[in-house]
Amino acid sequence: MEAIREGDRILFITERGKRYLIEVRRGRRFHSSEGYIDLDDVIGLPYGARIQTNTGSTWVAAKPLILDEVLNFPRITQIVYPKDLGYVILVSGVRCGSRVVEGGTGAGVLTTMLAYHVAPAGRVYSYDVEEDHLENAAKQLEKVGLREFVELKRGDLTKSIDESDVDAVILDIPTPWLAVANAKKALRDGGVLVSLSPTIEQVIETVEALRDEGFADIACVEILLRNLRVRRGMTRPEHLMHAHTVYIVTARKAYKLDEVAADETFKA
Amino acid sequence: MEAIREGDRILFITERGKRYLIEVRRGRRFHSSEGYIDLDDVIGLPYGARIQTNTGSTWVAAKPLILDEVLNFPRITQIVYPKDLGYVILVSGVRCGSRVVEGGTGAGVLTTMLAYHVAPAGRVYSYDVEEDHLENAAKQLEKVGLREFVELKRGDLTKSIDESDVDAVILDIPTPWLAVANAKKALRDGGVLVSLSPTIEQVIETVEALRDEGFADIACVEILLRNLRVRRGMTRPEHLMHAHTVYIVTARKAYKLDEVAADETFKA
Amino acid sequence: MEAIREGDRILFITERGKRYLIEVRRGRRFHSSEGYIDLDDVIGLPYGARIQTNTGSTWVAAKPLILDEVLNFPRITQIVYPKDLGYVILVSGVRCGSRVVEGGTGAGVLTTMLAYHVAPAGRVYSYDVEEDHLENAAKQLEKVGLREFVELKRGDLTKSIDESDVDAVILDIPTPWLAVANAKKALRDGGVLVSLSPTIEQVIETVEALRDEGFADIACVEILLRNLRVRRGMTRPEHLMHAHTVYIVTARKAYKLDEVAADETFKA
Amino acid sequence: MEAIREGDRILFITERGKRYLIEVRRGRRFHSSEGYIDLDDVIGLPYGARIQTNTGSTWVAAKPLILDEVLNFPRITQIVYPKDLGYVILVSGVRCGSRVVEGGTGAGVLTTMLAYHVAPAGRVYSYDVEEDHLENAAKQLEKVGLREFVELKRGDLTKSIDESDVDAVILDIPTPWLAVANAKKALRDGGVLVSLSPTIEQVIETVEALRDEGFADIACVEILLRNLRVRRGMTRPEHLMHAHTVYIVTARKAYKLDEVAADETFKA
To answer: Which residues in C lie closer than 8 A to residue A238 (C-beta atoms)?
Structure first.
């Protein structure tokens, strides 16, 4: 059993399905439209305990997952959604020990998920041209305990990438096609590029740039996630869904036919 | 630069888009309908090099990703597809160090992806009732170098789960609802249950069982992945797609309202 | 050219994409958040003319299609959406001259579309148990000039259907499976049954009832419609879409193996 | 009851779900991999009767719907699919009495569905540049009894459209944007243009052309249809679906702001 302690972050899931991600402080009372809970009453309970507000609404005091944390980040830019996050992690092959270049940092959602997966042995190099994006990301990463695994860098991947031999480059920028050549240089042999774009014109430019640079296994997908409302006798999909967030372009670093022979540095 | 060496596993991606995952052996010639390649010619090339068959078809000698490997496993059972794999990894929160119970092992695809993500500090406990599934999984895990992170167990999660305090339980069995109570006992506070089922009736039973056991944040999604064929002036989605693989049910371990008070072991 | 005249119904489509379906009256001024238009200025313009409000917003004075009309009906019940309406018309084979039984009338949207397609030679028999649904439908049908093609009937298709030899029976009721036997009796040989249901449990009951009654070619589909926002350089799907409205079950009247021989009335 | 007679067209739906659309001829035997049926035995049965082959497979002798007929046409070009056909009928507002220009005729599937809906009072003007498309369409229309409602014309909508004051123009041609100006001239005030295109680049060109010509209410959708396999205890969506056929662009004829005033012919 793991008891909730003062200073812990907890996720209240209310009876009506609202979510509140808060820090447990002694003497505090948490108010909502479904009544209040004294946080002192939560301390010592196991994570996952149910507790009632003064008005009788039954809540769960859940242990926040990293996904709860990132979905709670300030949305200072368009964020990457869970349906896309999972796919990016999967196809990039990112895991413990991976070295990943990412840009832009944006709201830090993807940055944090990458950090979560490369930790403790890997590193995320996250670029953004906006200083306040970097500052915000630093704060969010600090809060969830992943700050040490991320190098936040003021910079533009379409201009240059400092790193080399990285396992993956993840692009979430307006003109990804301009960063393709830099990404190729930064990637290790066998490395993967992933690019997220909302418009089809961005996708077309990016895919053609990847072809020009000799990338292999170029693909573009979009992912649709549909929620179901499951209750015996009343089961049906939810009425609304996200019809579109981003297209996901993936490719592997590869060499053009004559590129290897032409380059002296390729001698094994 | 990373050169291809004898004994390496490589993925040939042919000009027409076929994929061959092979081991590089000196003196061998790899034949296909697009011509042959002498594997001696591949040794020493960097991963990602392009090379031509005797008939002039240009192939890429790629470094296999873990996803290439699992999609190449013998399909002795229905496998879990990439669109679903990524989501499972994401929502389960599985990463380096996680301890995960999984069943059934089936073709070992999900087992291997879980192993890839928990390594090197975590562990997967994978159950199956079929001895030959376990043997096959052992062989596949060995091949991709992840055998040591998985404990393959002959057993049935609907009967019992040996482990406790695990971070996640992943169910891919015909009657997941019968394993819900066991999963609750096995999970740590804050742990996550994920269940994959092809039919809606399985989903309904499982969700109702999760409600009965007090699980929180119960959700069910289905994920659709659509490929786009991107080429300037000719861009469109592919004609066919997978309309359905599995529904994904997710839930967090939680306690019923009186469960905590009733249980002496819950004293912090 | 067809000029707008007093008494006509017109659809204003505003610069921001709002829609106002109104009747043109002399001396009236139509006010909106995008300014006002004097309806006298509209009279004599051709349908499709663009006109500016006093604040310079450019609107189109469009001729309402039947679809504009039905989407503007009071939504006294859940309506049938365009994506589903088109499919129902198609698979039912309903057209000029068809005789169709429908229930429930609900908000009258499907009733009106059916009337539009069976006119002037056919007839819709629309049942509802709620008197106010029938009254509302009568009013809406009157407004769009299709009242004469619809017989509105207080009744319950699960109890009985007065008509026989009809071309199609369209069910949009909570317990369609209870109306299947009546529908079979009402349908002509070769007739089609279409049933719309929001939940999967309703679908399962209905399909099993159709099997029991010997219906053939039983199918169930769901239709997803995605809007694209098309603008050169910025093209992408819309962010949100309807994930679910109803499942559409279709079947053809057929006889069980021994049913024909057993029934004397089947002698040709 | 409607008995099957010699010379009728019937649709056999076999036990395994195969479909055979044939003409009933005395003395003929219809052979299949599920056994044979003597057509003499079918004559006199009601439509919808079940009958067994010599090997005991139970078939239904169904009355073909127009949809069965068109899906059975020779696929000499890419056809329009049911999911899209229904939507085109709906949004075009085509029904009894409508006058519709269509091009290209292609395999005649959409032509026939339009004819089915405009009959008996309306007319379809179907253009194609290929003589053999027109000949094939003539044959198919003859077969299903709708020949008289269609004027098949050798011609190219991007060059000119002979008709005027038509209710709808339906484009299914490679360069629909080049036909937009002609379509505007051909349409009556309030008329509707629908354009079907497989690629997104075609859509972008077409939508921009529609904007340039002053069309209103321009929209683009794609329709996804998913089949469910419904059987108590085993219900799930089918595994495969069409991910893409065509994008459907719709618009209404409208005038640019100064177009009405500038044109003397617009005087009411």
So the answer is: 243-244
